[in-house]
Amino acid sequence: MKKETIILGIETSCDETAAAVIQGGRTILSSIISSQMESHKRFGGVVPEIASRHHVEQITLIVEEAMEKAEVTFEDIDAVAVTEGPGLVGALLVGVNAAKAIAFAHDLPVIGVHHIAGHIYANHLVEPLEFPLMTLVVSGGHTELIYMKEHGEYELIGETRDDAVGEAYDKVARTIGLPYPGGPRVDKLAQTGEADIDFPRAWLEEGSFDFSFSGLKSAVINTLHNARQKGTEVAPEVIAASFQEAVSDVLVTKTMRAVKKYGTDRLLLAGGVAANSGLRGALQEAADREGIHLTIPPLSLCTDNAAMIACAGHFLYEKGKFADDRLNGVPGLALESF
Amino acid sequence: MKLLAVDTSTYVMGAALTENSRPAAEYITHVKKNHSIRLMPAVRSIMQETGWKPGDLDAIAAAEGPGSYTGVRIGVTTAKSMAWALGIPVIGVSSLEVLAFNGRYTGGVISPFFDARRGQVFTGLYRWEDGRLVQLKEDRIIPHGEWLDEIRSLGEPVTALSPDLEKHEDLLQEKLGQLFKPAVPQDHLPRPSSLACLAADREGTAAHLFSPNYLRLAEAEAKWQEKQKEQQHERK
Ligand SMILES: Nc1ncnc2c1ncn2[C@@H]1O[C@H](COP(=O)(O)OP(=O)(O)OP(=O)(O)O)[C@@H](O)[C@H]1O
Ligand SMILES: [Mg+2]
User: Fold this and answer.
1) Is A211 in the same domain as A226?
2) Could you please report the per-residue DSSP string of A129-150?
3) Would the CB of A118 count as within 6 Å of ligand 1?
């Protein structure tokens, strides 16, 4: 019997240094994440140069830990998959060059993986993907609706024209006065308030699957600003709850429309903002109502990790899509060209 | 002892293989093109040409900085990852020392430098003594004018070596006058075989512990520390 394929995954696109070992495309033998959150906190956001410096220091330690935990040696590994982009260029370069060097040392193939493909494939680790399917990707840098007919085929049918959802959350958090990273804190606060303020929803042109959150963000800022000028107070939990409701309203409505238009009954949620309680709840409710099968990965697989990269890499391995020695970090890598 | 040496700390990209300090192969380019794309093909090519296998290597040497932050990281990441994967040590050598090696057989002192913007340079002071390179002053980042005043006072001839020479030539002439000794163009470009030669008789580091020597804080970090100091001052 042929043994199952084992992929070593490496992810360094932003502020987590991560490595994982995946067997047969679905079994997580290990997944190690070293977060730099604490190092960036005092700057109020991720500082690219500092992120890159941490990655170089951590990279071999994290890969070693992943291999030890998985109890595999280089003999067991079939390929090294690494995030090629998008992300912070200096950060990506550490993962890419480490992957190439490790692969060279043991004559293994290297596979370049798109970070968002990784976020989508996090779902495959939960439940095997079935096609065609629709994915809502919501993260710090992306808000996209992606339609897939089969493994490795991505059709971008809508995306944000300005801020990504996570970004909007972080900015709103800052105006309310919550510390970085604000997204989860706004979520928590929202659960304690009533959504009494009717913030604007950007539906854009008829039939468009694009998003826009900058208007909503400005409305939140203006509301707080006007209240302060009048010397009145708006309860922050009311702001948070109203903002959260406006966000999920648009995301859920457009996603369900896309599902209907493309005639799929499989829906995935991907990316760090999939941790959001309001969005999870509202999307699950809508999916149940329409008889759509929805997958939402556990929190540990929603935020950046290398298990998702190894998983997406597994399918590229099956197709024989290997990178060569010239593999580079590409900050603006497009998904569809993948 | 078989060594692979890589240096990507400036726009010069170099990879070399040496056996007991004798160069077996060397790959160098002096073009401003992406090191991340070109380093691995360069390493593979010299390994293929010599017929060496990764498992033959006893250690990997890398120029550890100072230099371009991203550039240094490409070489250091490649070296430490490969060394870790092969279970062999990494030997870090100052990128300035590698360049200073080109001043061999000169009398006087050698000041290798890289432009560090805003009038500053990464530099140090070396001398070639009895067939060995000796460090006289530690590597540092310093306004170039200030540095040249300091070394002029030694009263010795100075061989200044730098891939960024052009930008600093007038200042060197002005500050050093007769003490300034010119060098031929290729001596301003670091060679990976020099790196290997310097590394050959040094102790290695465990790959996990090896990281760049930037000689300068990240800008955000420096600003943050400054702000802390100011605030402390105000509180007093
Ligand atoms: N419960 C939550 N509610 C809202 N936002 C959240 C929640 N948890 C995390 N976020 C937001 O998710 C973002 C981080 O997600 P993720 O790690 O996927 O993004 P990223 O990797 O930085 O971006 P990308 O994957 O697009 O490159 C941050 O903006 C964070 O504030
Ligand atoms: Mg991400």
Assistant:
1) yes
2) --SSEEEEEESSS-EEEEEESS
3) no
